[in-house]
Amino acid sequence: MKLRTAVVALPLLLAACGGDDDAPPTTTMAAETTTTETTPASAPQAALTGFTECTDPPGDGAGADLISATLGVQGQVLTISYQTAAPLPGPSFSYYINIFSAGYQIGLRSIDGEVFRLVADLTEGGQENLTTSYTLDGNLATLVVPLSALPRLAQPFDYSAVITVDGVDVDKCDGTFRAAE
User: Fold this and answer.
1) What is the pLDDT of residue 178?
2) Are 84 and 144 in contact, with CB atoms under 8 Å apart?
3) How far apart are CA 120 and CA 109, in angstroms?
4) Paired residues of 84 in beta bridges
5) 3-state secondary structure of 172
6) What is the pLDDT of residue 154?
7) Which of 124, 149, 125 minimizes the C-alpha distance to 37?
């Protein structure tokens, strides 16, 4: 087992879509990441690279309407972004990516205003709490995950992006991640 520590920075490439002086403040956090690698050095993870987006029809999210979710891999980092029609209601909500073929659930979760980032291992059990960067900015949520936290992940893979409010799934979209061409 090898312990590696790195600082992850989130490059935020967003274009303003018009001024809104009443917009809620942006929360962006960057922190030190400590990950425990359990894969042997002789079995490196296959190179993942690319970008994908799933979309969802507007108006079907019962107060937490998911518009789209994007997954992008560059280097050794998976960046996940969720776009909603409006900020999610209440202090308790979650954004999840389910990758059942690899046995992972990746989440950005707010419980009474406290934010958690996690990778749940659905195959072997357990959960890794991440300290990686994230952004909650009105209708946009972004989470950065080191690929070392997902050693079984290989492309292509199918995924579901899910939004929950107070523990209830309210909207989702499905997609497939494939290698960049």
Assistant:
1) 81
2) no
3) 12
4) 66
5) strand
6) 86
7) 149
| Helix/strand/coil for 68 | strand
Considering Cα of 123, then 129, then 135, then 140, what sign does the dihedral take? positive
The Cα 20–Cα 88 span in angstroms is 18
Query: Taking the C-alpha atoms of 126, 131, 137 and 138 in order, what is their torsion angle to the nearest 10 degrees?
Result: 30
At 53, is the secondary structure helix, strand, or coil?
A: strand
Segment 39-63, tens digit of pLDDT: 333 334 557 788 999 999 888 877 7
Give dist(CA 33, CA 27) in Å, integer. Answer: 18
Provide the token pair at 126. Answer: 């357990």
Q: Can you say whether residue 33 is alpha, beta or left, with left for phi > 0 and alpha for psi between -120 and 50 degrees? A: beta
Residue 12: name the closest of 29, 35, 32, 31 by CA.
29
Which tokens is 14 given? 């967003």
Distance between CA 60 and CA 26 in Å, rounded?
Answer: 26
Residue 152 region by backbone torsions, left for phi larger than 0, else alpha for psi between -120 and 50, else beta: alpha
**Distance in angstroms (rounded) separating the CA atoms of residues 101 and 103:** 6
Structure tokens at 18: 């018009």
Tokens 């999840």 label which residue? 96
| Tokens representing residue 114 in the block | 């406290």
